[in-house]
């Protein structure tokens, strides 16, 4: 049986879990769009395939990779996050090695499936899950803090990957990333991840008192019950749109910036700005989640995403590009916190793995299909404007729906 310690530790183990979950989110970047986007141009040039073909491979690979997420979620519920995270870390390192061997569009599709499945459907899911198991009353700020790992990764990895590609080529860069995964998150998962604190006689929330005076009983929804609630589908829709639009924008970031008259070096700096705003937005939204229902914050995320879609459609230049990076970072950060804590707040921890695994399928499906309308827009009218305007309208519709959906009640 897993053990934390036979003696009282100098700090509550919940803080160690929070740090481990944060680092787990950080190390998903080799399979996140912000990381893959830096590889996109070198891969398409080397393999002599079009951006449309690569986008289709990315979409199909993402869909294939995310399909096991519900099964992984149920596995976490039954066997705990420690074993799951360890196996997933091995799979992520192997996926990076496979990417270094890609020789064709078909191999690229399979590589994307392995990479996205291990990073998003696996490591991201279990890293969020372990934090949700250890924090209840302070879940909003804890989940947001853990999600800062993703924002930090979005800040660090694009520059790191760009440098690795420059010095070692894109294949060498993937091999180095595989080694980095093996010597970092693999031992962290094996040594530090743990199941819920009650199993070890510890309290939730790292032993801290509730952030509010009112303490309500923790809900307990099955996956079937959760799927019958409007709020589950609202959060799925918000996650779908954020992933769809955000993935399309990040995957085509350098292309969009060139259209706006922005140089490659400045476009890299805008990714750093985006990551910084994302971090601040994640923490701010996490603070609000401990005080307000997640559904009340969905309109805020959708408003910023609508602006991020509209700005490059109607403007260009450095000022518009800066505002675009700020809005996209704000949307990503807000939705990141809502997605990390929302299901646990509404549906409890008893069946959380199965519920989050299912929501991951719908959310990450957005990342799969999002780039396709953008590619089609470029092919048909020569610009991204049609896809961007349609995305803006969908965000407004989703934000409006949040005012209609009601808080779920157990059957």
Report on this model:
The protein is mainly alpha-helical and 411 residues long. It has a single domain (13-401), classed as Growth Hormone, Chain: A (Up-down Bundle), CATH 1.20.1250.20. It contains 17 helices and no strands. The protein has helices at residues 13-26, 33-47, 51-66, 69-79, 81-99, 105-134, 139-183, 185-192, 223-227, 230-251, 253-259, 264-289, 294-314, 318-347, 352-369, 371-381, 385-401. The longest helix has 45 residues, at 139-183. It is globular and about 55 Å long.
How many DSSP H or I helices?
17
The H-level CATH homologous superfamily, spelled out, is MFS general substrate transporter like domains
Helix content: over 70%
First-residue to last-residue Cα separation? 35 Å
Average pLDDT for all residues: 86
CATH architecture: Up-down Bundle
Query: Spans with pLDDT under 50 lasting ≥5 residues?
Result: none
The CATH topology corresponds to Growth Hormone, Chain: A
| Total count of domains | 1
Class by SSE composition: mainly alpha
Number of β-strand runs: 0
In CATH, what is the class? Answer: Mainly Alpha
Strand content: under 5%
Question: Which helices and strands occur, and which strands form pairs?
Answer:
Blueprint: H1 13-26, H2 33-47, H3 51-66, H4 69-79, H5 81-99, H6 105-134, H7 139-183, H8 185-192, H9 223-227, H10 230-251, H11 253-259, H12 264-289, H13 294-314, H14 318-347, H15 352-369, H16 371-381, H17 385-401
